Amino acid sequence: SLTGAPVTLKILENWVPRVSPYFDKEHYTYAGHRIVIQESIEYLGAVVWPGALALCQYLESNQEQFNLKDKKVLEIGAGTGLVSIVACILGAYVTATDLPEVLENLSYNISRNTRNMNTHKPEVRKLIWGEGLNEDFPVSTHHYDFILATDVVYHHTALDPLLATMEYFCKPGTVLLWANKFRFSTDYEFLEKLCNIFNTEILAEFPEANVKLFKATVREN
């Protein structure tokens, strides 16, 4: 069952009019930092989706509730890297993960936007949902305070491996923050499965963008 009364928010138009002549770059400002994101039209994961904007905005506005400073943060399905960059600006030790074909653009955006900052250097790693988790991210050495995921649920066949991946990384004390645009019945089915496994609370809704933001934690027996 889902708990919490969500705040209703609007995604702020906080991106800066682009000054570069290239169609593939978007400019954002979060936590006082200008962020330039290079998108790629070749991959779904290389475009900034509304869930990412919603989560960035929420993390920036709720730093007392979710203090990322010196926390270990894992982003799954990091895409362009915007959320990981914002988490890094907010002081986290960030590991941004995605499919192999997305990593080059992801690494480029993250290194370019964090290289001159006095923050923990983020790490970019391959993660295919549900595959090789024990080998690549052994539990004994990989414990995360926060798991971040935005717009990872849409019409695709990897929903069960995605859920298994969330379950694998969510240990006692870990907070999963998941923001998603809700369009299809599969989105609600995934939410139902999430609620069956985790204590799930809705934090915010962005009705104009059809985005909902959830917090999930592991059930302590």
From TrEMBL:
This is MT21C methyltransferase. GO terms for molecular function: methyltransferase activity. InterPro entries: Methyltransf_16, SAM-dependent_MTases_sf. Signal peptide: none annotated. Keywords: Methyltransferase, S-adenosyl-L-methionine, Transferase. GO terms for biological process: methylation. It comes from the Eukaryota. It comes from Bucorvus abyssinicus.
